[in-house]
Amino acid sequence: LKRSAATALVDGDDGIGHLVMTYCTNLAIELARESGVGWVGARNSNHAGAAGIYAEMPVAHGMVGIYAAVSTINNMAPWGGAEALLGTNPIAIGIPAGKEAPVVLDIATSVSSFGNIRRYAIDGTPIPEGWVVHSKTGLPITDARKATEGVLLPIGGHKGAGLALVIGLLGGILNGAAFGSDVVDFMGPGTEPTNTGQFVIALDVARFIAPDVFA
User: Fold this and answer.
1) Which of 85, 150, 170, 173 has an alpha carbon within 20 to 30 A of 2's alpha carbon?
2) Model's pTM, two decimal places?
């Protein structure tokens, strides 16, 4: 939709998130080759799988990669609240290390991802206290099958909630994508687009320091 020397905005046309973000990441790499940095935002996308994939793609080109997304379901509350208005909005960073394996951080902004809680539910295993609290009582939920009756807790208290919030603003609002109460639950009937928002950044290491020295 828009493109400048170092930025672009992509409309995913409600396509598969993996396809949309692969396109966006390759575009960010292309922009970074020319300008040193490329920031590409997406709207009308969908869930794109593991965040680390897109953070690591620029690494092969001697670049740092940063990826973040607005989750396709809200299951976390703003700090101190009980209403699920935030997702477990993930962030991932990939950093090249020469011949060694790259440094890749891929985390949810909640103590546990919701996918992990689903695995506990399938196995019938109790989840630890401190992962989910009941929306009405504030008491811990340890039965993974009842997790939807509560909200997931953020990493680091208010810090994780704040991080989820700003990822939502930069990945959602900035791109014209869904955020807060506008998020469409991807586990729902599927009758309307999710308008998922994401962004990816590629940063050319060589613009700062010789890549071999950095590695």
Assistant:
1) 85
2) 0.93
